[in-house]
Amino acid sequence: MPDVTGALGVVSPVAGTALSLGTVPDPVFSQGMVGPGVAIHPEPGQEGGQEGWQDAVSPIAGTLVKLHPHAFVVMAPDRRRGVLVHLGIDTVQLGGEGFELLASEGDEVEARTPVVRWSPGGVAARGKPSVVPVVALDAGPDALADIAEGAVLRGDPLFLWR
User: What are the PTS EIIA type-1 domain coordinates in residue numbering (predicted)?
Assistant: First the structure.
């Protein structure tokens, strides 16, 4: 069993199917250029309210150091580890359409705090993949343990960053 002393537990920001980052149709993520992680493929209608809108939550407790409609980074209290959540691929091109900010850059958040409301179906309808990469920024390739696979709900454990 790996030593997980000081490990950072990361939870799923959205519901869906947890798969390898290699399944992301973008080489920056699929080749691990920004770090290792997990891809969440949202299921249509899963945990979605009106028109399939759902909240994407913070994967860790910390500070929202970057916040865009399509992506956000939360820095852990140790200020050494940041987790990127990217809602869809090439979604910056949507200019915020299909996204609603629920927090502000600089906010202190707990794990599972809603950060962005979005519509994965709306993203897909606009021709963009709705997959959600969750990345341990600048981590080594072997830094993650207990990586989830298969169905996950929003807030379920996703991986440990050791």
Answer: 26-138
What pLDDT is attached to residue 48?
Answer: 47
- 116 in a domain, yes or no? yes
pLDDT in tens, 113-162: 999 999 999 999 999 999 999 999 999 999 999 999 999 999 999 999 99
Amino acid letter at 148?
Answer: A
Ranking 47-51, 63-67, 158-162 by mean pLDDT, the lowest is 47-51
Give pLDDT, residue 49.
47
| H-type alpha helices, the chain | 27-30, 120-125
**Which uninterrupted H or E stretch holds 152?**
strand 150-152
Total residue count of the chain as it appears in this document: 162
**Two structure tokens written together for 109:** 């958040």
Model pLDDT, residue 132:
98
What pairs with residue 109 in β-bridges? Answer: 62
In one-letter notation, the amino acid at residue 130 is S
Contact 130, 53 (CB under 8 A): no
User: What is the domain count for the chain?
Assistant: 1
Residue 99 within a domain = yes
From CA 131, how far away is CA 121, in angstroms rounded? 11
Q: Assign residue 161 a region (left: φ > 0; alpha: ψ between -120 and 50; beta: otherwise).
A: beta
Token digits of residue 33: 């250029």
Which two three-digit tokens encode residue 67?
């916040």
